[in-house]
Write the C-alpha cells for this entry.
Amino acid sequence: MIISASIRTDLPAFYSKWFLNRIREGFVLVRNPYNQDYITRYQLDPSVVDCIFFCTKNPTPLLPHLDEIKDFRWAWHITLTPYGKDIEPNVPDKRLIVEQFKKLSDLVNTHNGGQDAVQWRYDPICITERYTVEQHIKSFEVMAALLEGYTHTCIISFVDIFNCVTRNFPDLKEVSWEDQITLTKAFVEIGRLHGINIKTCVESSALAEFGADCSGCSTPDFFEKALGLKEKGLTFVPPKKKFAREECSACVVGGDIGNYSNCPHLCKYCYANYGKDQVLSKHNMHDPNSPLIIGNVKPGEIVHPAKQISWIKKKPDIQPDLFENI
C-alpha cells in the first residue's frame, strides 16, 4: 500500500520531527477527517508499505534525515510555483526549493533504483493582474530550464474555486477555457525543449488535444517507474476504488496521514485550509510525540487497525511453458 505524507498538509515542511518519531515507533494514528471519532492505525513497516509518497512545497527539513527512512521506497511531488508572499506567505525562497529539488532527485532515483521519482507540480495556476498568462509562461520557462534533467514530468492544474478558497482569496476567478488552452500549449512546447512531459491533475481530458498527458498524476505506472519495479520483474496492483471525481479514477489512493486545515504555509488558493485561525489553532495542538498529527487519543476512543497488504506483485510470466503438458 501507499502512505501519503501528505496531500492534506505539508508534512515534510512542518511535521518532520513528528513523522520521524512515527517511523521509529513503527505506526501512526489518523483521525478520519469526516468522522473525528474514527481513528485508524497504520503500520509503518516496509513489508506492507510499498512507498511513502511525499507531497510538499519545502522538503528541506526532512532531507538531512532520509537515512532514517532508507528501508522504505519513496516518491515525491514537489510544488514549485511563481507566486510571491502575496499568495504563498510562508513558502521559502523558490531558489532554495530548486536546489533542494535537485539534491532530492539524484538521491531518490538512486535509492529506489527507479526513474522520475521526483516530479514537479506547477499548480494551481491562478490568473490575476500580477500573475497573467504571459507571466506564467515566462516563469514556467525559467523553472523548466532550471529543473531540466532533474525531472521528466510536470503536473499542472488550474485553480478550483471552493468555498474556503473564496474566503481566503475573494478576488480570485476561474481560469477561462481559452487561457487553459493557451497555457497548456505553451507549457507543452517549453516542456518538450527541456525533456519534461506535461501532465494534468483533475482537468478536462480535452487538453490532451493540445499535447498534455491527461492519464492521471499518480497512476500505478508512475509508482512502477518511480520504484524501479519493472526492472525487477514486479508490477504494482492497487485495489480498485470509487472516486468522487471521475478525473481521479486512474490514480492511486493510499492512507493519508495528514490533517486538513493544518498547513502553516497559508497559501491563499489552498482547498485544504479553511481559514488562518483554524490552521494556527490546530498547529498549536500539535504534539511531536503523539501518534496523531493533531492532539492525542482521548480516553475511551477506539483505534481501528487498517487492513494493509503489499500492492507489489510478481509480474505474470507471459512466456508459455512448452513442457507443461508433457
Notes: Residues 48 and 310 are 5 Å apart (CA to CA). The chain has a mean pLDDT of 92. The first strand starts at residue 2 and ends at 4.
